[in-house]
Amino acid sequence: REQQGYAAGNIVNLLWLLRGDLRGVDLSRLEIRQAFLQGAEAQDASLAGAHLSEVVLAEAFRYPTSVTLSADGAFLAAGTSASEVCLWRVADRTLLATLQGHTGGIRSVAVSQDTRLIVSGSFDGTVRVWDVGHACVRAILSGHEGLVYAVAVSRDGRLVASGGQDGTLRLWSVLDGEQLAVLRGQAGGVWGVSLGDDGRLVAGGSEDGTLRIWETATGRLLHELSGHTRAAHGVALSADGALLVSGSLDGTVRLWNAEQGVPITVLTGHTGGVRGVSVSEDGRVIASGSLDGT
What's the CA gap between 13 and 222, in Å, rounded? Predict the structure, then answer.
């Protein structure tokens, strides 16, 4: 990279002049200097691992810090480093809304089943519930003492769960913004949360790698699950609440019987910590994302 000098930047400038755009161009791992990219159309271009210096852009770079798909896969929501929540229509990649109000980066986003609500958790210590149709904030949920790491919303959009740096998992009513419960017992921050579709169960993953499952109506702790050797960042309950999937910085994905509180199996293969997990509607397919880039 150090030997590239100005060559990459000159080639990028020339390529834009010749093609009229930079769509789909692979610029990964390049040292790009003195490139003029203001106004360049660059959909699907890759800058993975690239280093930019003395480059003119149309606006300051902002990058996604959390993403989620709607249940039907039609919409993509992303929280950004610029404290914004963005919503796109997947089919034609149209940006439908940019929601502003947080004063810190967004750590987690969740979308309700009907896509009418987006929930975001921020480093500013608040949880916000957004009305997508009117592109405005519906409720600001304050109570965490420190950063908010994770959020989840029930299928009917009435219940929100959040986990934070303060080691608590909190339950909120979307209707009036009331804090319904503060669930304690986690060691360190709560990095991942998940609600079952019916909102009956909530699960949280903590800094010490343990997972806990509570009954939302009573706040009663049902199960405490141990097995991970590092922080559990990814937590996902299946739609029926029978299966819990967890991903950890120890590089493993674990499956648990959420009703009985017992382990099912351990999935290995990642060479880096697992930051996120998801489970399909029917509970048959599991996806995981890792620091190893896969």
Answer: 60
